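hey so u asked for the seq, here:
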Amino acid sequence: MNTPPASSPVSPPPAPISSAHLRAITWLSLAAFASAAATRLCDPMLPDLARHFGGPPAEVAWAVSGYAVAYGCLQVIFGPLGDRLGKYRLIAMCTLACVPGSLLAAVATSLHSLIAARMLTGVTAAGIIPLAMAWIGDTVPYAQRQSTLARFLIGQVLGVVGGQFIGGVFADTLGWRWAFGAMALLYLAVGVGVMAQSRRLAQPGHPEVTDTAVTAVDKAPSDMLGQMRTVWRTPWARTILAVVFAEGALVFGALAFVPSHVHDRFGLPLSAAGGLMACFGIGGLSYVLFARYFVQRLGEVGLAKLGGAALCLAWLTLMIAPSWVWTVPACYLSGLGYYALHNTLQTNATQMTPSVRGTAVSLFASSFFLGQSAGVSLAALAIARVGPMSAFAASAVLTPALALLFARLLRQRHASTHSLA
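ran it, structure tokens below
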């Protein structure tokens, strides 16, 4: 069973989450779907954008990377704002604020204006997923938090796959502009729903506020730098941030090159090779659908080990695969393993500094993003200098080592909690 960390008091088993609370989490999951879909929307339409604007591939790719850079850089702003203004309300405002950027992308007349519109959307979307995780941390007891976060992750996982599907379908039929128009409508509909839910949460005596809220006992600093210092001064927080940075580098440093590896080694068209990545999402969805069972049977320590083992097996399968068909189970295992490990990290991130939870989770997301960026750059360098298998080999060795280290640290932390109790 999950054991609460040292910062969380030991208490009797909590009551089941109310249906009203689940409805509030469902709206957050829908917002996460929109945010994740926008992240991957341009992936399948890059060739179409290159033909339309006549730009070189590296410049057109900024329609993807520009969004990611803006998204990652703004994490540290929204966390402290959420702690001060209210997380759910700010999530609603961020979701609605994504509408203008999506509409501007739909009517872009040049590649530069499209990139600027995408960066604007990245700025406004940056507050959705981290603040949603922090709000769940505020309102869900720790014993139920990992399975609840997994339920929330359903929207994010489906968004990763759905974004590529939406972008590809519109690019092949009505045109790429309609994909951004569809995203604007999605953001508008979800934003209105989240805002309405936010107003219900603000009503005095609402069950989400009075019955299940997990409040911090420490007084939070009022200034942004003070909130960040609170996180950095917490040893467990520094550990989680370091581990998630390494996880992002190892997992996505290898994952980013799976399509090109399958294309180069087995001659599979790039479109089909990219389509195989949907198996990563299916693996992740398999985890979140059965997360409650996994948490009950394995606990946090077991889930960390499961994640490392599945990822190791995925990369080894890719290295020795005799045909592209083996990429299907490999990508599935990578999705299952990644979400088992990452969901455990997310759960701990929501509790590492409860007094400034929004700031803590935003720094967690920022560390994860920076890890991804560093991992892809290092993997590209290794592939160029050592060979195409180097990224998979490094991840096959280092990812399980990281997972075992994290599992050991979790076991020590749980033992410390029991001794204090």
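The two ends are 16 Å apart (CA to CA). Residues 1-14, 207-218 have pLDDT under 50 and may be disordered.
lmk if thats what u needed
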